[in-house]
Write a structure and sequence with these properties.
The chain is an alpha/beta fold. The protein folds into two domains: about 130 residues, HAD superfamily/HAD-like (Rossmann fold), CATH 3.40.50.1000; about 70 residues, no CATH class. Helix content is about 45%, strand content about 15%.
């Protein structure tokens, strides 16, 4: 079955997401490590992407991991948009895929908080046919549910989809569901994969 749709992850694929640089720019080494442990190494950040708990409830989880660093955790949380970096190549990459006749979608673990913190980084969304954010369906990759939400919403056949993501577990889940999948290592490598896609019928865009 031929590929008709290309599905992109967003974080560290279409946008930069350099939280280590961000935290170390804000704090000294010891504080940066404590904030990193509380926010990104406990697994609590995934609760933001799921959007089941409120932001305040999630902040309290962060605080519980490092109670002495409550103010610093709040400062990092309030300014986290600074670690999301706009990638100018994203729009051109999407356009290059669409020009070959493919439909383009996104499938991303992403929170409402992060969207609001730096909406400019997501400038390319209007170029896509649509997609699914985890915070809107309360499910995150690699859970199969979020993939199935995308299939159902846009009537996609998994075997007709090419999925690009930087995380191996997410790639494995996609393949288990029948999708073609490429792990993103860097832009040049992943762009070469889409450049190899053949031109297909223009009417696929309709």
């Amino acid at each position: 079955m031929s590929i008709k749709n290309v599905i992109f992850d967003i974080g560290r694929v279409l946008v930069g997401y350099e939280w280590m640089d961000f935290v170390h720019a804000l704090f000294d080494e010891e504080t940066a490590e404590a904030v990193t442990r509380a926010v990104w190494r406990t697994g609590y950040w995934h609760e933001l992407d799921k959007a089941v708990l409120s932001d305040e409830e999630i902040l309290n989880l962060f605080y519980s991991a490092e109670p002495k660093y409550k103010e610093e955790i709040k400062l990092a949380f309030d300014n986290v948009g600074q670690c999301v970096l706009r990638r100018d190549y994203a729009g051109e990459w999407i356009d290059s895929v669409k020009e070959k006749g493919y439909r383009v979608y996104y499938l991303s673990n992403y929170s409402h908080h992060l969207m609001q913190a730096n909406p400019d980084a997501l400038y390319f969304l209007e170029r896509m046919e649509g997609g699914v954010f985890s915070c809107d369906v309360k499910s995150i990759k690699p859970d199969h549910t979020i993939y199935e939400k995308l299939f159902d919403r846009y009537s996609l056949t998994p075997e007709e989809c090419l999925f690009i993501d930087d995380q191996e577990p997410n790639i494995q889940a996609a393949r288990q569901l029948g999708m073609n999948a490429v792990q993103y290592i860097d832009y040049e490598q992943a762009r070469a994969e889409t450049d190899r896609l053949p031109q297909i019928a223009e009417n696929n865009k309709e």
